[in-house]
Write the structure tokens for this entry.
Amino acid sequence: MLISRRDALKAGALALAAPRIGILQAAPRKLPIGLQLYSVRADCAKDFDGTLAKVAEMGFEGVEFAGYHSYAGNAEGLRKKLDQLKLKAEGAHLGAGNFAPEKLKQTVAFHKTLGCKFLILPGDGRYTHPEKSKEYAKWITDLAAALKADGMYTGHHNHTKEFEKAPGEVDKTYFDLFAERTSKDVIIQQDCGWTVMAGLDPIAMMKKYPGRMRTTHIKPKLPKNSPAGKKALIGQDVTDWKAVVQACGDIGGTEWLVLEQEDYPDGMSPLEATKASLAGLKKLLG
């Protein structure tokens, strides 16, 4: 069958465009960067407003709370301060007590005022308890269902203990069992630094449980036997953060990258180390 010159030119143009479209689709999605305020907790305790201002000046787009200091019970005042600094309430780490039946309504109202939708448990002993781990998974799944009606989400933030083999399991860790026992609405907030410390690959975790990591911690940690001269700062450690961030967007379903700076090398202050890691991360990401 013969085709017209016009159709032939059109087909050729589409063929030339195809590689360029593929390149555009492969480009990494830019993810906003927030700071887990536990990184600068001592500064927050001394001067919360001043510390928030310094965090904004560094270039963070949001914050994940680890306490509310002078704004406890004053969500309106805190929201006003965040708006002034052009910071978003990316998320919060909260203890299980905040979700008790008698406190749940208050917790939801407080964080709704902040515009904060990710309410994460930063650790719970039930997760790695041989008898209570199943109970915990059901509890947090039910909590996720209750919060979803208000446009909020909950989940669990790992350390290294979560990667221990569960009793009676040949090849499953507590991390695996939690993922299997919870609904897809429950966030697996992977702390990539602790994953590295456990001798595992953060990207492999994302591939194993795709789309479950809507908020991901970027934490520089140096595992044992790290090369001399390496520091626990983004860009100066041993983790390929550029590849990790790419996977966050492509596989993990991540909406926010959350920098958490726990180590302060060379006598640096928490604020100085945090600023250095943010600069290193932005440099790696171009």
About this structure: The longest helix spans residues 5-26. Confidence is low (pLDDT under 50) at residues 1-27.
